[in-house]
């Protein structure tokens, strides 16, 4: 995606914090390129905007009040195959960047970066349609030797994975507790730990992850 043809670049800024969107807006204004901005503060607005508008580059947070963007990346790409997606988030790049790239993102940028790196990342998205940081490059090299790095389920313990699979089969807390001969509140605690590790909010997202990674 080269910006030299003077066409208007359509950006979607998707983040539930308006200050983040405002900061990127100021940065884009400094680029002196023809651009149009669309905003979204939750997953539903994000999906609606992509469906209705020919977005060129979507800058998307990982986490929203109504869920995690990891679960909808495939759907976004299906709607707009040419659209480039930059994940711009505060979650740990070492743990999560490969998961997002594997799910369809074209770049992963930590909000912990200095402004210069954020600018460089957006310019790379404009020029080549992708941004791979030095951290993620190292992870990509490691993943060639260890493919499990791109599978989010690999972060779960054997017991956590067992319980996650039971949830995916449609079992509830009481049934799982009975099958494993543990207390129901133990199952609830492990469920919360699974959700925290996988950065998900609900069972629908868990089922989707298990379906896509096994």
From TrEMBL:
Gene3D superfamilies: 3.40.50.2300, Winged helix-like DNA-binding domain superfamily/Winged helix DNA-binding domain (1.10.10.10)
Keywords: DNA-binding, Phosphoprotein
Pfam families to which the protein is assigned, alphabetical: GerE, Response_reg
PTM-bearing positions, type 4-aspartylphosphate: 61
Record domain HTH luxR-type: where: 149-214
The UniProt record lists the keyword Lyase: no
PROSITE patterns: HTH_LUXR_1, HTH_LUXR_2, RESPONSE_REGULATORY
Residues of the Response regulatory domain: 10-126
PANTHER family for this protein: HTH-TYPE TRANSCRIPTIONAL REGULATOR YHJB-RELATED (PTHR45566:SF1)
Name of the protein this chain belongs to: Response regulator transcription factor
Organism of origin: Chryseobacterium tagetis
């Amino acid at each position: 995606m080269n910006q030299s043809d003077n066409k208007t670049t359509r950006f979607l800024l998707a983040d539930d914090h308006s200050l983040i969107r405002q900061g990127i807006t100021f940065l884009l204004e400094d680029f002196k390129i023809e651009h149009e901005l669309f905003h979204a503060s939750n997953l539903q607005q994000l999906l609606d905007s992509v469906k209705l508008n020919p977005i060129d580059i979507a800058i998307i947070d990982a986490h929203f009040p109504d869920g995690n963007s990891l679960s909808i990346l495939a759907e976004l790409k299906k709607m707009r195959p040419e659209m480039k997606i930059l994940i711009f988030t505060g979650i740990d790049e070492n743990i999560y960047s490969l998961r997002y790239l594997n799910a369809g993102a074209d770049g992963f940028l930590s909000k912990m970066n200095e402004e210069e790196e954020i600018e460089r990342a957006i310019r790379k998205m404009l020029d080549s349609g992708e941004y791979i940081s030095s951290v993620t490059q190292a992870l990509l090299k490691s993943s060639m030797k260890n493919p499990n790095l791109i599978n989010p389920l690999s972060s779960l313990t054997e017991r956590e994975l067992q319980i996650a699979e039971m949830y995916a089969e449609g079992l509830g807390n009481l049934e799982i507790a009975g099958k494993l001969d543990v207390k129901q509140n133990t199952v609830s605690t492990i469920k919360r730990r699974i959700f925290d590790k996988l950065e998900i909010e609900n069972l629908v997202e868990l089922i989707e992850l298990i379906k896509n990674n096994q």
